[in-house]
Design a protein that fits this description.
Strand content of chain B: under 5%
Radius of gyration of chain A: 23 Å
Structural class of chain A: alpha/beta
Oligomer: heterodimer
CATH superfamily of the largest domain in chain A: Response regulator
Shape of chain A: globular
CATH class of chain B: Mainly Alpha
Number of helices of chain B: 14
InterPro entries (chain A): Peripla_BP_I, SBP_2_dom
Number of strands of chain B: 4
Distance between the termini of chain B: 22 Å
Largest sheet of chain B: 2 strands, antiparallel
Shape of chain B: globular
Protein name (chain A): Substrate-binding domain-containing protein
Strand order of the largest sheet of chain A: 7-8-6-9-10-11-13
Number of strands of chain A: 13
Largest interface: A-B, 55 and 53 residues
Family (chain A): Belongs to the bacterial solute-binding protein 2 family.
Helix content of chain A: 40-55%
Radius of gyration of chain B: 21 Å
Low-confidence stretches of chain B: none
GO cellular component, one term (chain A): cell envelope
Order of helices and strands of chain B: HHHHHHHEEEHHHHEHHH
Organism (chain A): Candidatus Galacturonatibacter soehngenii
Chain lengths: 376, 341
């Protein structure tokens, strides 16, 4: 009897905890939900929903992002919400738990399709995995707008347009700026020197393009100065050259977790011939800084370069631990994906938008054209 | 004749006072740890460096606290799958309290441990009073804790205060940087002392105290223990509370070393800890637990985690290597037990 009572009590507390959990979730997302619903109810007249071919009032747009783990996505969300408010459309901004959860993202894309939105924004973690959903969208006549890393390798015509940083160009920018700093070291080196490249994964296009952009550009810059380059470390990029002057060493962790990236960074920092390490996104940049905690080589014997911002990276750039970093314009990405989606849904022609990127150092990070893109 | 001599030799090995004191499985695990360390060191010169040793300690803290805790749950014949996400949840929530709501760090650390304890209590009640299978109960709280952490932080990552900030003092519990005369700072892995103290306390609790004996007893035969008048539910709940509490402490350790916590993460951490426990010789079917063995298993896991990238193995090969070591270590234990029976 006593036991039964207890288990009933337990059930009750668990259910109430669940309700409380949902309750506390509401204010967390209320800012977005509220603004979404507000914008629609203001403009939609419920009686004539059937005849709204021109009005965007009840237009709903599903945006499937890569999740919210990094503050970067909050800036994208902010841009998207701003644009949605201005255009009077509803947006539903979703994202998987982590950037490794490819299956979960596919599920979200399918859910989006089931809701038959006017358009879908998609930042694919893995294009192959999303292909089925993309084809379904095509058949249903729902335009897809790619953003962030977009949906590379998607079938011709499946993606109406992309609102994205040209990640390959961003990687090249990082290589250009980095080479200016390390050129002397490479020129004066008597033995092999090593450049580390930390990529969070080898599947998402934004990460791999930034890696490839950096690697290719660095290789051509070094080779232009008459040195040889060998690329090692990960099968995707490997291009081994024996006895090369410069080794580009690529590290990819098994999983996107802080401790694995930190260990990768330590491994690179520990190699005596390493002169420079590049982290190709916020996560890798933070792993680089954390990994340096036991070694203190960044800013002294090793040049550190990162991507995006966040508290750790910003303070490391400020203190000189990192020589600099490339920042994207996440707010513009968010704005553009919504604007393009609305246009595409109305049947207007749309084309790709490069939202741009900039190199920042301790000297210019407070500048008016840089500071708004740097988030905590 | 020859069979007799090998038997004698075996008995001599098993009856050797050193082997008896350490326990065969723990001895095998310890040997494996030393061999892995030497092999890695032979392949990679940078693995032999002091800073790498510090990194191995760094990785051992969070796995270690989780593993010590989950040893109790496993000893009862159960399992706690929620520890990884509870670690992330408690550390995310308190990290956000510290940075966004300016709650003093000391209070945050206490809350961090408390959150772990509450999840442990929940697990314990579900298993002992509601009669849920431990696997399912803790799988549920794994999802709960994953969700709660994300909800509280609005699914944003949290970066705990840096060592350079005043609020970063808690990092000194796990690592003190001593600045030498030449201006170079040397990290001292002080967290190992804490890990060792906690391990000794918990080993005493598990094997030398009344609650511990009840936990072991109910793990080997819950019905018999119940029939002999022991309040089984109470002690079973205690085991899960310890497991959760330790996950909370592990949350502090993780934050102190790796700074940034990602919401939605943590699933998979528990497997490193459980692997460590099993390698150390604790029986998955319950009724026998060893904290000393767990500690050795944890160091095998952290040496593998830290060392595999150093010997130039690519990501996927690292996972294969870890899997092989786990299977081999547990097989040794199983084979050993069969022989003795």
């Amino acid at each position: 009897m006593k036991k039964k009572l207890l288990s009933v009590l337990m059930c009750a507390t668990m259910v109430s905890a669940l309700v409380a959990g949902c309750g506390s979730k509401a204010p967390a997302e209320s800012t977005t939900d509220q603004s979404k619903t507000d914008t629609t109810t203001e403009t939609t007249d419920k009686t004539d929903t059937a005849t709204t071919d021109t009005a965007s009032g009840d237009m709903s747009i599903y945006i499937v992002s890569k999740g919210f783990q990094h503050q970067y996505w909050q800036a994208v969300l902010k841009g998207a919400e701003e644009a949605a408010k201005e255009l009077g459309v509803t947006i539903d901004f979703k994202g998987p738990d982590t950037e490794s959860d490819i299956a979960q993202q596919v599920q979200m894309l399918n859910n989006a399709l089931n809701n038959k939105p006017a358009a879908i924004g998609l930042a694919a973690l893995d294009t192959e995995a999303c292909l089925e959903g993309i084809t379904k969208a095509q058949q249903a006549g729902i335009p897809i707008i790619g953003f962030d890393s977009g949906v590379p390798g998607a079938p011709e015509g499946a993606i109406a347009a992309n609102a994205a940083t040209d990640n390959y160009a961003a990687g090249e920018l990082a290589a250009d700026e980095t080479y200016k700093i390390i050129k002397e070291k490479i020129d004066s080196a008597t033995s092999t020197v090593r450049i580390g490249v930390m990529n969070q994964d080898a599947t998402s296009e934004s990460i791999t393009s930034r890696g490839s952009g950096f690697i290719d550009k660095m290789k051509s810059l070094i080779e232009a100065d008459g040195k040889t380059v060998s690329i090692e470390g990960h099968d995707k990029w490997t291009n081994k050259v024996d006895g090369a002057n410069v080794i580009i060493d690529v590290a990819v962790p098994a999983q996107v977790t802080a401790e694995l990236s930190s260990i990768d960074a330590q491994n690179l920092l520990n190699k005596a011939d390493t002169i420079c390490i590049y982290g190709s996104n916020q996560h890798s940049g933070e792993g680089l800084i954390t990994g340096d905690a036991n070694l203190n080589k960044l800013g002294t014997s090793v040049v550190g370069v990162a991507f995006d911002s966040g508290e750790l990276i910003k303070s490391a750039v400020k203190s000189g631990k990192l020589a600099g970093a490339v920042t994207q314009d996440p707010v513009a990405i968010g704005r553009n994906v919504v604007e393009l989606a609305v246009k595409a849904a109305k049947g207007e022609s749309v084309s790709n938008v490069d939202t741009g990127c900039k190199w920042y150092t301790a000297d210019n990070m407070e500048d008016a054209d840089i500071a708004p893109n740097l988030y905590d | 004749m020859s069979a007799k001599t090998t038997e004698k030799k075996q008995n001599a090995f098993l009856n050797n006072p050193i082997v008896k004191a350490v326990g065969t499985q723990r001895l095998i695990a310890l040997l494996a740890l030393i061999i892995i360390y030497i092999v890695f060191g032979a392949i990679s010169p940078s693995f032999r460096q002091y800073s790498t040793l510090v990194s191995i300690f760094d990785a051992s803290y969070y796995i270690g606290f989780m593993a010590i805790g989950v040893t109790f749950a496993i000893t009862t014949g159960g399992i706690d799958l929620s520890i990884g996400t509870v670690l992330v949840c408690s550390s995310l929530v308190t990290g956000a309290l510290a940075t966004k709501y300016n709650v003093p760090i000391a209070l945050c650390l206490i809350i961090c441990i408390l959150i772990g304890a509450i999840f442990g209590l929940l697990n314990g009640l579900m298993v002992s009073y509601m009669g849920l299978p431990p696997f399912i109960a803790t799988l549920g709280s794994m999802m709960l804790s994953k969700g709660f952490g994300s909800i509280f932080t609005k699914a944003q990552s949290v970066t705990w205060p840096q060592a350079t900030e005043a609020a970063g003092w808690f990092r000194n519990i796990f690592k003190i940087n001593i600045v030498g005369a030449n201006g170079m700072s040397t990290p001292i892995p002080t967290g190992f002392i804490l890990l060792l103290i906690v391990a000794i306390l918990m080993a005493t609790l598990l094997n030398k105290s009344r609650p511990g004996r009840y936990i072991v007893a109910l793990g080997s035969n819950i019905e018999a223990t119940r029939l002999s008048g022991v309040n089984v539910a109470k002690w079973q709940t205690l085991a899960y509370i310890i497991s959760g509490t330790m996950a909370g402490i592990a949350g502090i350790a993780y934050a102190a070393v790796y700074s940034t916590l990602l919401p939605g993460g943590g699933a998979g951490f528990e497997l490193d800890a459980i692997a460590g426990v099993v390698i150390g010789g604790t029986s998955m079917s319950g009724g026998y637990g060893t904290i000393a063995g767990t500690l050795i298993g944890v160091f095998i896991m952290s040496v593998l985690k830290t060392g595999l990238p150093f010997i130039g193995l690519q990501t996927h090969y690292q996972q294969v290597a870890t899997g092989l070591v786990l299977i081999f270590a547990v097989f040794m234990d199983v084979a050993n037990r069969k022989k003795r029976n």
